[in-house]
Design a protein that fits this description.
Distance between the termini: 46 Å
Shape: elongated
Structural class: mainly alpha
Order of helices and strands: HHHHHHHHHH
Radius of gyration: 17 Å
Strand content: under 5%
């Protein structure tokens, strides 16, 4: 079904075919082909496909692991408001994978994702505030994340970062 639509350049069909190959839904699982179809949609500005390409490069699925390329693709999706990509980009800045360690940048990406209700970003942002790693920019947004402080307090109490 999707393979006919892809010939017409339908971006959603490219993404859907990528998902099929990624998961093995109706076709044999093939991460190389999944990446190919995700990439076609990503190059046309499809944020979920950009996120998928970024994650495949981050994990080395269907290609060699390349954190810098992962960061580039995740940034493209994040700038379009893709909450999971924003959170993952925050993770990369926090760990210095493909980008320099930058807690202020990580805080900003977590803040953007948390503002959309992304729970892990809320927890990470709250933890940053509790640990004082958010920097000046992050401290200015401490009250902007509903539940972030409570999630961070619970995480710290449980001994989790």
């Amino acid at each position: 079904m999707y393979s006919k639509a892809t010939g017409k350049g339908v971006v959603e069909a490219h993404f859907a075919l990528g998902r099929q190959y990624f998961s093995g839904d109706g076709v044999e699982r093939n991460h190389v082909l999944a990446l190919k179809w995700f990439l076609r949609a990503a190059e046309r500005g499809h944020a979920p496909a950009q996120h998928a390409v970024g994650m495949m490069h981050a994990r080395g699925m269907g290609t060699d692991r390349n954190p810098a390329l992962a960061a580039d693709w995740l940034r493209k999706a994040a700038l379009q408001g893709h909450a999971e990509a924003q959170c993952r980009l925050g993770d990369l800045y926090c760990g210095g994978e493909g980008v320099p360690v930058d807690f202020v940048a990580a805080t900003e990406w977590y803040r953007r994702a948390a503002a959309q209700g992304h729970e892990r970003a809320r927890a990470n942002l709250g933890t940053f505030h509790a640990q004082g790693r958010a920097g000046e920019a992050g401290l200015a947004t401490a009250g902007a994340v509903p539940g972030g402080g409570a999630v961070a307090a619970a995480a710290l109490q449980a001994g989790r970062p």
